[in-house]
Amino acid sequence: MDYQQTEKPDFKPSTSIKMRTVALLVSLLAATFLISVGSAYYFFWPNFQQIEQTSAEQNAFRMHSSIYRELENLHVFVADWANWDDTYQFVKDTNLDYMRSNLTATTLIDNSLSGIAFIGAQKQPVWAQNFDLLRHRFTRFPEEILHLIQSRMPLADEGLAGFVLIGDTVTMLSALPITDSTRIAPPVGAIIFIRPLDIGFLDKIAERLKLHYRTETLVPDPADRTLTHPLGGDQIQPDARVIWFDIPLVNSDRVYRFHVETSREITDTAMTALIWNATTVLVASILIFLAMYLALDRQIAKPLIQLSQQIVSMGRSIDCDPLAENRTDEIGLIAHEVNRMQDRILSLAVHDYLTGLPNRRLFDDRLDHTLDRAERLGKQAAVIFIDLDGFKPVNDTHGHQFGDELLIAAAKRLRGITRKSDTVARLGGDEFVMIVELDDEEGGRLETVCDKILAALTDPFLIRGQEVRITASLGCSLFPDQAREPTDLVRMADEAMYGVKHEGKASWRLYRA
């Protein structure tokens, strides 16, 4: 290869002193930022983790205590019956009046009991019935529970209180010796109350405590010493810290394990605080840097300042114009996305997040407009309150996600039979409401609208491959015949709906004073 000798060009500095100064300040800025963030993480992060761990343990202990408090309350309730003279006499002579007055379905339903049994002094059942709280019917009392108490008779004064496994269901058990109110006479037998510790019961406890949990029944490892402690162990997940504990079962070698989940809000708060700390330090350093070298960064700083001024104006103005989208770079992209976010927030503010129907806020606005229009044109308008019959059992049986899908399907059907001039909205839960402008046309008569609603909701729904049947109860009120104020119309429709509920459901009724 032929090389030709060339003359070297004159030396030209690739950087200036100013640029070297900039590089030095940038290095100091980075060092200050890293030291600040690192020290904050080193000194504060472990404390936040410890606080979160303590909070999770407290939540688990609250769940643990609440469950045992329910058992204690049941035991106190049984003690009232066990020391009652009428109970004492009933076990001796099987008084029918006692049975008619106390051993009824109402007694078990009101006290959430799934069974009551009386055992005589000879260990023979005097009266024993189980009760299905879902179907409201008496069934055979569990033999294993009778045998358990019979094997321990005569019971000690403190009786027996604990948790038992009946089939696949964990149940609270309380048994006490039956004595008279003086407690002088010898016991004449034993009384047994059982109350299911089912998901519905536990959900009420968790809702009261504002906790999330899950359960499982398992055979414990004998080598696992944590089972002897109230709180067994913990597990850290990305979005929750889980503490579990076990409840021993009186009639089984298995345990009922509870996993109590505590959201990692403290960790999220700590991370946010660290980020804000880092951001504050970084912004402060950059502002100092920009103040010293404004001339060098004018082309970058100026548009950012202009954009920030526009965003501040947007935050301070109630009725502000959208950000200007006159740039094609990243600043224009930010303005565009902020405008889109503002539109999305406005939409979410007036629509139900689950079904996409208008929410109560938009419903009130459209009701006002409909009544004004009806007043102006001399027409009638109706408010129809819709409540889904049978939704709660479906939701309790199949879960909330299944119930949500059913609500979405019901909303879709209601939307499909609604005219453009009318409005259907969801107020919450399984309650919907419709605004209808009435006229003499085929689709504008109240009877026709109500029949269409009932027909649409009576047809079976197919949810996750399962056929689900529900009905609806409708209450109606008329403008201006019955009321002129929107709140009165909604109230009357609501009361009419409850009248339908009491009369047998699956129908509609106009408000009657």
UniProtKB/TrEMBL annotation:
InterPro entries: CHASE4, DGC-Regulatory_Protein, GGDEF_dom, HAMP_dom, Nucleotide_cyclase, Rev_trsase/Diguanyl_cyclase. Gene3D superfamilies: 3.30.70.270, 6.10.340.10. Keywords: Membrane, Transmembrane, Transmembrane helix. Residues 298-350 form the HAMP domain. The chain crosses the membrane at residues 21-45, 274-296. GO terms for molecular function: catalytic activity. Residues 379-513 form the GGDEF domain. One of its GO terms (cellular component) is membrane. Pfam families: CHASE4 (PF05228), GGDEF (PF00990), HAMP (PF00672). NCBIfam families: GGDEF. This is Diguanylate cyclase (GGDEF)-like protein. It comes from Aestuariispira insulae.
